[in-house]
Amino acid sequence: MTFRKDARPVILTGDRTTGPLHLGHFVGSLRNRVALQHSHRQYLLLADAQALTDNAHDPGKVRRNVLEVALDYLAVGIDPGVTTICLQSALPALAELTMLYLNFVTVARLERNPTIKEEIQARGFGRDIPAGFICYPAAQAADITAFRATIVPVGEDQAPLIEQTNEIVRRINRQAGRDILAEARALIPEMGRLPGVDGKAKMSKSQGNAIPLSASDAEIAEAVNRMYTDPDHLRVSDPGRVEGNVVFTYLDAFDEDRDALNELKAHYRRGGLGDMTLKQRLASILREIVGPIRERRAALARDPDHVLDIIRTGTLAGRERTKVTLEEISTALGLFSLDGQANGFRARSALGLGMSPPTLGGEGGA
Ligand code: ATP
Ligand code: MG
């Protein structure tokens, strides 16, 4: 039997473990991941370390949602037989690479990142921005490159982060004197980002405006009823606006019967089509999408040990892969290495780090 190197392009993407995933993730990224997992070598990160950058006050939330996000992955059809699911905080090479990359990006550039600016605004940080938060684009560059990913299926809000990753890649390559890292491409769905049910620009776990993939039929109906339509469409007979109408934005994202949808739009513009009819159609489409996901999720949730095993196995594989990349980059940059080849062992003994661990603290104390 001959072993062939896996020539499939590598995908890396992930989700902050700040809450169960929602319909924004479904249209923004999950659908692509399920479709691509066989033709690509796919790694998914449960991004708990990144989640902590704006949730340090609530580590319990970040921890609890590791399992929730993993359940969502499996429920939408991510197959752990072909996709590797890793826990970000358990991959030390990512943290080491982040430290390295932070030297290849300026504070001004981090502050200028449009995604970061928008998120700082949405989180109301004012001037009290956690340093870990403003630096997370460098961490994301570490995530992508550590897996040697070239394709990153993400929502449109993430495009500036991939751009920043590629800037870091070019700097590292320039410093190394050769193309040690490949640039990555964001795979962004055409529809753009899904707005929140409150009409805000983005459905987001942290904004309380999401329909989770585990929503019950009643929750779906309630969320759809809350959606804005056209504020000037007061009577059924009035002509209505389709553009900026949240219900139509959702129908654009989820209604597969394009002819029927175009007909509905024309009817709404003419007048004579009530908001309730529209909302009922949307609720029924969403129920059909979410229903099976919710049922698979509930079945999987009955055996959390099985899910934890999947995460553990994936993380061990991810640990190996990211460690190798870290070593390759450190070597290419000509950094000192304690382990590795012969000169490394000499260095270790020269530093007296051989047998007994150095004593920390001592009697003086702090
Ligand atoms: P948080 O509010 O904690 O940042 P989030 O809802 O923004 O959570 P993330 O984990 O930050 O979710 O995003 C994971 C992926 O899902 C990213 O690729 C992001 O672009 C995509 N995504 C999130 N929300 C949407 C949305 N409303 N529409 C399209 N894609 C989205
Ligand atoms: Mg986000």
CATH homologous superfamily designation of the largest domain: HUPs
CATH architecture of the largest domain: 3-Layer(aba) Sandwich
Distinct ligand kinds: adenosine-5'-triphosphate, magnesium ion
Question: How widely separated are the two ends?
Answer: 61 Å
Which class best fits the helix and strand makeup?
Answer: mainly alpha
Structure description:
- The protein is mainly alpha-helical and about 375 residues long.
- It has two domains: about 10-195 and about 300-350, Rossmann fold; about 215-300, Tyrosyl-Transfer RNA Synthetase.
- The chain contains 15 helices and five strands.
- The chain has helices at about 25-35, 50, 60-75, 90-100, 105-110, 115-125, 130-135, 135-145, 160-175, 215-225, 245-255, 260-270, 275-300, 305-330, 340-350, and strands at about 10-15, 40-45, 85, 150-155, 185.
- It has a three-stranded parallel β-sheet.
- Strand 1, helix 1 and strand 2 (about 40-45) form a beta-alpha-beta unit.
- Helix 11 crosses helix 13 (about 275-300).
- The structure holds adenosine-5'-triphosphate and magnesium ion.
- The site of magnesium ion has 2 residues, from loops.
Task: Give me a quick take on this structure.
The protein has 366 residues and is mostly helical.
Lay out the secondary structure.
Elements: E1 10-16, H1 23-36, E2 41-47, H2 48-52, H3 59-76, E3 83-87, H4 92-101, H5 107-112, H6 114-123, H7 131-134, H8 136-146, E4 151-153, H9 159-176, E5 185-187, H10 217-226, H11 246-254, H12 258-270, H13 275-301, H14 304-332, H15 342-350
Parallel strand pairs: 1-2, 2-3, 4-5
Helix pairs in contact: 3-13, 4-8, 4-14, 8-9, 10-13, 11-13
The chain binds adenosine-5'-triphosphate (ATP) and magnesium ion.
